[in-house]
Amino acid sequence: MKKVLIGALISIITGYIIGKIIFFNKEYIIKNKDEDTYYFLQEGVYYDNNILENSIINIRHKVFERKNDKIHVYIGITKNLDVAEKLINIYSKKDISTTIKEKNISNNEFKNNIEQFDLLIKKSNDVDEILTIEEVVLANYEEIIKNSEEYK
Question: What would the pLDDT profile of 103-119 be if each residue is shown by its tens digit?
């Protein structure tokens, strides 16, 4: 009798713990299914606004994100790794080092826009044209994603 009660008690406690884990993480699980992966080209991470203003002279348009007293600077966004490599090559010829950071974003309008811009970049070999398209991509990100985050 004791073995049955102890077994039942352990089963109930285990079920309760697993249920809590699933319940508190269900938004994360559901959210990941709706999100798409984007590749952000990060120019750098800065701690001081003065350093930030002096460090990026060659890039006309960029996106700044503040996280934990750090300023992350992004100079490109894409959904396609081939496009990301193409952008990295362009920036490396201008002596600008970049790293790829993956981010998950759920926004159909932004997704459709990025896919169209990626097609344009894939077809183009003109550096100025590609950089102009990336400027539009970054402006689009600020307009659609960052503005929607401010109103939440």
Answer: 888 888 888 999 999 99
pTM assigned to the model: 0.69
The residue type found at 109 is E
- 36 CB neighbour count, 10 Å cutoff: 15
| 111: number of Cβ within 10 Å | 16
Closest by Cα among 76, 145, 89 to 117: 76
* Helix or strand run (H / E) with residue 19: helix 2-34
Give the position of tokens 């994100």: 65
Contact between 74 and 42 (Cβ < 8 Å): yes
Q: Which two tokens stand for residue 65?
A: 């994100």
Q: The tokens of 104 are what?
A: 């998950």
